[in-house]
């Protein structure tokens, strides 16, 4: 058995053991939220081992992506995108970057009479932005902990700005190889990101491959 082949088998066995460990820990505290996801991980890993043992060679895989970006807004579509990205990052040893883009709309009157009102609105916007960034950062920290449980190298950033421009700029500046994004979504509380038109524009304008999760 060559070293690469041996490494792949050991990696899949490790995935199974680690996932079972997570399941047992969750079962101890009555937490079954990720049960089906964990079962799928075990099944996928076991299937790969079966193929490798039957054929004697590792199965062909898709291109390895060194850096994967997931725009996250806590919607069900971005949650699906993150689950997919975690699996890919674990499979290829990729760096996973999770970002949350916060946009605070400001409607200000252009008249001089409303100058003081506009100043108050700007102050209010800053307070809202600060509150949203704190809330978003808390959510991303939780997701970071979940990623690390699977041995994924992950970083999180909360970015104020326009969603499309901010995501594309981050991908460009950090040399992202793949963007995994939900097809649409809108958080109920803070309206952190509106996906849909965002995911479409990202797919059209990004310089790297984009995977849209539905």
Task: Report on the architecture of this protein.
There is one protein chain. Helices cover 56% and strands 16% of the residues. It is an alpha/beta fold. It has 2 domains: 1-60; 61-213, HUPs (Rossmann fold, 3-Layer(aba) Sandwich). The protein is built from 6 helices and 7 strands; from the N terminus they run ααβαβαβαβββαβ. The model is unreliable at 186-195 (pLDDT under 50). The longest helix has 35 residues, at 115-149. The chain has a 5-stranded parallel β-sheet, with helices on both faces. It has a two-stranded antiparallel sheet with strand order 5-6.
Helix-strand blueprint:
Elements: H1 3-28, H2 35-55, E1 67-71, H3 76-92, E2 95-102, H4 115-149, E3 153-160, H5 163-173, E4 178-182, E5 185-186, E6 194-195, H6 197-205, E7 210-213
Parallel strand pairs: 1-2, 1-4, 2-3, 4-7
Antiparallel strand pairs: 5-6
Helix pairs in contact: 1-2, 5-6
């Amino acid at each position: 058995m060559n070293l690469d082949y041996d490494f792949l088998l050991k990696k899949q066995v490790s995935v199974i053991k680690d996932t079972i460990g997570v399941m047992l820990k969750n079962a101890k505290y009555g937490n079954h939220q990720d049960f089906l996801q964990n079962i799928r991980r075990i099944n996928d890993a076991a299937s790969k081992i079966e193929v490798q043992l039957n054929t004697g060679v590792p199965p062909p895989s898709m291109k390895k992506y060194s850096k994967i970006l997931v725009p996250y807004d806590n919607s069900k579509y971005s949650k699906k995108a993150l689950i997919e990205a975690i699996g890919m990052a674990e499979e290829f040893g990729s760096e996973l970057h999770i970002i949350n883009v916060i946009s605070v709309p400001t409607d200000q009157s252009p008249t001089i009479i409303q100058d003081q009102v506009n100043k108050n609105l700007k102050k209010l916007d800053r307070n809202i932005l600060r509150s949203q960034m704190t809330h978003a950062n808390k959510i991303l920290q939780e997701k970071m902990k979940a990623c690390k449980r699977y041995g994924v190298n992950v970083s999180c950033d909360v970015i104020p700005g326009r969603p499309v421009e901010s995501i594309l700029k981050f991908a460009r500046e950090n040399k992202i190889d793949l963007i995994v994004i939900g097809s649409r979504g809108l958080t109920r509380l803070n309206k952190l990101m509106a996906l849909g038109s965002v995911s479409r524009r990202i797919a059209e304008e990004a310089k790297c491959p984009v995977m849209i999760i539905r």
